[in-house]
Amino acid sequence: MPIVGYYNGQFVTPNSGIVPLDERGHQFGDGVYEVIRCYGGRAFLLDWHLDRLWMSLQAIRIAPPFTKDECATLIERLIVESGELEASIYLQITRGSAIRNHLFPNPAVKANVSATVRPVASQIAKEPGTLLMMADERWANAWIKTINLLPNILAKQTAHDMGADEALLVRDGAMIESASSNLWFVRDNQLITAPADRYILNGITRRFVIQLADRLGIPVRETKLPAKDLATVDGIFITGTLTEVFPIHRVLTHPDVPYVSLPDVTGLQQLSADKCQVAWEARDLSLVGRLQSAFADAIATFAKSDR
Ligand code: PDD
């Protein structure tokens, strides 16, 4: 199947070079996005994604170029064009194209809408993963789903370089999120996850798992868990649109991480994975397994349900 791209009303191949150089997303990262999962040819939790997209647009003062219904229709059309049943839809809206200037274009220009649809496979069967603990160096508005992801990218790449799957981000002494997923702890048969304040992205999967836990009778505490309490935790998992519910069996630390605040940034390349230390190992991931199965069941039901 062809991978579908979309730019301002046209269906294109993703690398067709259609974005102008004076595009504010391209030059400033001046835009917002959503990643939506398609199961069985249908966009999962689409209304929640659209509500969050509208919140992000409002937060950075971009006028939506269409209504939510028109946006939903576009997403459905993209899925049909792709012919995919299991796919990831990336949708980006930027402030538009104008000669480079930090000030918003005046008069305002129309926002640019771009999208891609790509096939993806479920993560559910993957083996438990590893996190690398590091300082959260993002700005104080992580709740906005902006395309400015440099701190997230550096954090996740560092985690990968050290042999981990994801970063465990610590802000003000608390373990609040991962670089591209929400972070959860299991302790005494309860789930703990950071509250959806300005410092984390209120994940759509996070919201769904809160509902799922409620249905399963598993208590959820939305509170910030101090990094010093890591040893008290029985299990960890991360959630996200593409990550789904992913169990974690190990947390690493590294003596030279956090690194971006170090004066010698060239030191970045010299990090050695040999220096990583195991800070935590899972005691019990059975509750995470239960949630994973419930999540898989919910998806299967959704994928089969009537349109
Ligand atoms: N990332 N936290 C961060 C920083 C994220 O980037 C994401 C998702 C999440 C999980 O949110 P949701 O459940 O709504 O996907 C949490 C997406 C998928 C990405 O950037 O590719």
From TrEMBL:
Superkingdom of this protein's organism: Bacteria
Single Gene Ontology BP annotation: carboxylic acid biosynthetic process
Family: Belongs to the class-IV pyridoxal-phosphate-dependent aminotransferase family.
InterPro entries in alphabetical order: Aminotrans_IV (IPR001544), Aminotransferase-like (IPR036038), BCAT-like_C (IPR043132), BCAT-like_N (IPR043131), Class-IV_PLP-Dep_Aminotrnsfr (IPR050571)
Name listed for the protein in its UniProt record: D-alanine transaminase
Entry keyword set: Pyridoxal phosphate
Pfam families assigned: Aminotran_4 (PF01063)
Gene3D superfamilies, A to Z: 3.30.470.10, D-amino Acid Aminotransferase, subunit A, domain 2
Organism, as annotated: Alicyclobacillus sacchari
Keyword Transmembrane (UniProt): no
UniProt cofactor(s): pyridoxal 5'-phosphate
